[in-house]
Design a protein that fits this description.
It is built from seven helices and six strands, in the order βαααααβββββαα. By secondary structure, the protein is of the alpha+beta class. It has a four-stranded antiparallel β-sheet with strand order 4-3-2-5. It has a two-stranded parallel sheet with strand order 1-6. This is Transglutaminase-like superfamily protein.
Length: 196
């Protein structure tokens, strides 16, 4: 699949905003701690990915009903759904000048129908590489990789699932609106869009 930037301006994939708030002290402190142990930007990216994947539980897996959406809140509260965890990873990577995009998959939802799944793409050596920080569990073994995707799921077209090829510099407005409006995770599952 060819990944398509939604803007040709690569600096947009380094920008901070209200959601990917890599200027926030919590993000900066976490990035500095991870960077201190990394030999280069590749090692830093892998460490940031593994930190978000492993140290911040997916709220569905942990039973946490809170809905986070701002990167600094995800890092401070240590909880989030896939979209929120992707925002946190994007902020950590952008804090160290690694271009990072947000991207989406349409997947079958556990409770029927479909839902959008959030992940990121990082730019190394002139190419984009998708990474899924959702968090591993039985049946899910996502890994950081620049030599072939190791995502949580591979969409099944026969089930109406698909990869969206667009790389967004900011969260998709439909996803962000659902995250911001949700008082809790059960409500989010009912309002999260199932397509872009």
């Amino acid at each position: 699949m060819e990944l398509i930037q939604n803007t040709a301006d690569l600096s947009a994939y380094l920008a901070a905003d209200e959601v990917i708030d890599h200027h926030h002290p919590v993000v900066r402190e976490t990035a500095a701690r991870l960077a201190a142990e990394a030999a280069d930007s590749y090692e830093y990216a892998r460490a940031a990915y593994e930190f978000v994947r492993d140290a911040i539980p997916h709220s569905q897996d942990s039973g946490d009903l809170r809905v986070t959406w701002r990167a600094s809140d995800v890092l401070a509260l240590r909880t989030g759904v896939c979209h929120a965890k992707s925002h946190a990873l994007a902020a950590l990577l952008r804090a160290e000048d690694i271009p990072t995009a947000l991207c989406y998959q349409r997947l079958a939802h556990d409770e029927g129908g479909h839902a959008l799944h959030g992940l990121v793409a990082v730019r190394f050596n002139g190419a984009w590489h998708r990474q899924d920080p959702r968090g591993n569990k039985p049946g899910v073994d996502a890994r950081f990789s620049l030599t072939g995707e190791r995502l949580a799921w591979t969409p099944d077209p026969a089930a109406g699932e698909l990869d969206h090829p667009v790389l967004y510099a900011e969260p998709h407005p439909l996803v962000l609106a659902a995250l911001r409006a949700a008082p809790d995770r059960p409500h989010l599952w009912k309002t999260l869009p199932d397509s872009l």
